[in-house]
Amino acid sequence: MSDIRVDLESVQVVEGQGISEGDFELRVQVQEGSHNLVWPSLNGWIKLDKNGPPMSVNQKIAVYPVTTGKLSKRYDIELTEVDGGLNGQNDIGEGAVTIDLTPDMAPAVVSTTIPLKRPNAKFQGKVKVTLAAQRTS
Questions:
Q1: Helix-strand-coil percent breakdown of the chain, rounded to 5?
Q2: pLDDT of 59-96, one tens digit each?
């Protein structure tokens, strides 16, 4: 048997939102079954450079005991780019990734790029979210 830890590894802005938007004020929620991670906090946000490298997060989502075979887990991801003032309402994006966990797995990294959209507007901006899985025992 192995314990497999899955983390929210990093986030990165890969496409800006246009001339009126500066850096991104971002909140990330990752959900799998009863496991839920909100980063940096439920009502908080963190500033991401719209032209910057990936921001390291390294926050645990869950640890799973895996005895035999393959355990597939789907992680639903919701992004909120917090706006106010002249930029109006928050931008929201949703995506998902699936990771196959096995007792003898090598470390695995899975990413998805999620477009952001404000209510009643077109998609603007994209954020790459990366999850990582590895054995802890």
A1: 0, 65, 35
A2: 999 999 999 999 999 999 999 998 765 556 889 999 99
CATH number at residue 16: 2.60.40.150
Specify whether the CB–CB gap between 75 and 99 falls below 8 A: yes
CA pseudo-torsion sign 94, 42, 111, 121: positive
* pTM for the full predicted model: 0.91
C-alpha 111/C-alpha 22 separation (Å) is 24
- Residue matched to tokens 């496991």: 35
Q: Domain tally for the chain? A: 1
Q: State which amino acid sits at residue 91.
A: D
